[in-house]
Amino acid sequence: MPAGEITPPGTSASGLVWPEVFDPARTIVLATAGPKLVWSWTGARALPPGDLGDPVSGTTGYQLCFYDGAATLLMSADVAAGGQCGGSACWKALASGNVRYKDATGASGGIVGMTLMPSALRPGRIRVRGPAGSVGGAGGAC
User: Fold this and answer.
1) How far apart are CA 113 and CA 64, in angstroms?
2) CA nearest neighbour of 52 among 124, 129, 141, 142
3) What is the pTM for the complete model shown?
4) Helix (H, G, I), strand (E, B) or coil at 85
5) pLDDT digits (tens, 9 = 90+) for 40-96
């Protein structure tokens, strides 16, 4: 699995095995209320920043994949590392240590926002947003 891929099972660049922190019954919220799709993930343990790669410098992209209970791919979206979105950098490192992706056009499979919230002391979190009607499709390479 490529470093930074969000879909389980797999191993991050630093050896973090996703099933250790990925518990779908406990950690995923997928909401399509109103005009937006919101996906949130909270790890079961600390998630050091290095385990999420570096999308700001252009070395780590992400792939978000949604499956049904029978492991059939329902939709997917790829969010590339680096790049320009509307004349500004798509990815920004924030003072809080979080990393934020923003693209109002949703050019990356309909994804308009992603926030990576690593922490060496508390469970890491990831949040992804997009318009519900235009996020991905089942044609991705998950």
Assistant:
1) 12
2) 124
3) 0.73
4) strand
5) 888 888 888 888 889 999 888 888 887 777 777 777 888 999 999 999 999 999 999
